[in-house]
Write a structure and sequence with these properties.
alpha+beta
């Protein structure tokens, strides 16, 4: 660490530099860049008022439940040479079973999972992760099943590419999809590999789920396809940024 005086044009700032190993360029913090006049951050209150269109009130159906991308079904590529595994059920503690049942019912009501009747070649166990809200998160241990799921190689955008695309933009909005993975429907032939056991029977996913090894690439590519042809729209996973030089 070193304290030094740096100058940019007519401005001078006394700052602390942190020296690290490796071949990297020099980085200025936001605070230092502002104090030197390199960067200026402002809040345009007039623009904020113009953009405040209250979309929640104008389009209430878009802010309830979980959406689903139309005319799009995801087909997982499953290796037939991998022997299916029916893993043993993991016991769920009695004191959280009611919470698990509520979570399962919620996912069924949202059309995310469905009951399984009859024999199934794949069965994975679940484990429970408590949330800060007091609710529980249901997680499927897909490690065995993932050995049969073939990965898809779609290019993931980098931050450097995104920054280049944003060059010249002055107005930004960000969108975050609710339960993004669940907005993609699984093809009926691909659902069997997501089957999991609970204390109230077998369930399987009707939507793309967290835990499948190909999920991130499939989801990134699907959202990028939706945005193709729309100027000023980019995504990294379920985070979408909309940008432009002005509000028009």
């Amino acid at each position: 660490m070193i304290n030094a005086e740096i100058r940019f044009r007519s401005r001078i700032a006394n700052v602390t530099f942190y020296v690290t190993k490796g071949q990297y360029g020099n980085l200025l913090s936001c605070y230092t860049a502002q104090s030197l006049g390199i960067l200026k951050l402002t809040v345009n209150t007039a623009l904020d008022t113009a953009l405040n269109t209250q979309p929640e009130k104008n389009f209430p159906d878009l802010f309830n439940g979980i959406g689903k991308i139309k005319d799009k079904k995801v087909k997982l590529h499953i290796d037939p040479e991998v022997q299916p595994k029916q893993q043993s059920h993991r016991r769920i503690p009695f004191h959280i079973r009611k919470d698990v049942e509520k979570g399962l019912q919620r996912l069924e009501d949202l059309d995310v999972i469905e009951r399984v009747e009859g024999p199934t070649p794949w069965v994975s166990p679940i484990f429970i992760v408590p949330k800060k809200t007091g609710e529980v998160r249901l997680c499927v241990d897909m490690r065995k099943a993932n050995k049969a799921v073939k990965r898809e190689k779609h290019l993931m955008p980098t931050l450097d590419e995104l920054i280049t695309d944003l060059n010249g933009a002055t107005v930004f909005s960000t969108l975050d999809l609710t339960s993004g993975y669940h907005q993609l429907e699984l093809d009926s032939e691909s659902r069997h590999i997501t089957t999991f056991s609970t204390h109230v029977g077998l369930r399987r996913y009707k939507r793309l789920m967290f835990g499948i090894n190909a999920t991130s690439e499939i989801f990134q590519n699907s959202i990028a396809e939706l945005l193709t042809g729309l100027p000023g729209c980019k995504n990294i996973s379920d985070d979408i940024i909309v940008y432009g030089r002005d509000v028009r």
